[in-house]
Design brief:
Elements (H helix, E strand, L loop, with lengths): L21 H17 L12 E2 L5 E2 L1 E3 L6 E3 L15 H4 L8 E5 L2 E2 L5 E6 L6 E8 L3 H8 L5 E5 L2 E5 L2 E6 L2 E11 L2 H18 L7
Antiparallel strand pairs: 1-2, 3-4, 5-6, 5-9, 7-8, 8-12, 9-10, 11-12
Length: 209
Amino acid sequence: MGSSVWDTQPPKHSIHSLPLPEQANCIMPAVMKALAAASPVSAPPSPRRSVAGSSGAPCQSLHSSFRGISLRCRPRKPAHRSPPLRSSRAAAQVVAMKPAIQFIQGTDEQTIPDVRLTKSRDGTNGVAIFEFDQPSVFDSSAELGDITGFYMIDEEGMLQTVDVSAKFVNGKPARVEAKYVMRTAGDWDRFMRFMERYSQANGLQFVKN
């Protein structure tokens, strides 16, 4: 009997070197060409196009790595901008306040007074005396209370004094007198600015004795 020997050596031809039929050799070039055409690396870049949105503005067209698929972005709506803030200096308007005299703060005296002015020779001090015949404060004092002082108010601020006295006739108040003392030249100038505004608003005029 002949002996059998098992050949344990690997075959001389691997699967990679097996001969292919002629039909396979014809198909492979066509398959490789098709794969190359579908590959994103070899695909020719498609031209960028812009699509007009509803507002007529062109939209940017973003292309993915896959041929024939595009992502369209609409133009961003402009953010609402609040109007610029004006500077307080430009926006502030100086409104001329009507000069007024008050005996009770918040209530203007309607009676126009007689005013007497005296000034020292060196101009460092002066005195103003206001006399009111039947002032309107008498009518409102029953509701608003007693006289609290003498207040001269204009656009620069307020001048005040508590030197106020009332004169009575037959037991009834008839006159009110207020005295305002100016101790410096600056006080005099400030008072004269008030009197100029008050005189223009109420038709007064200065008479030098």
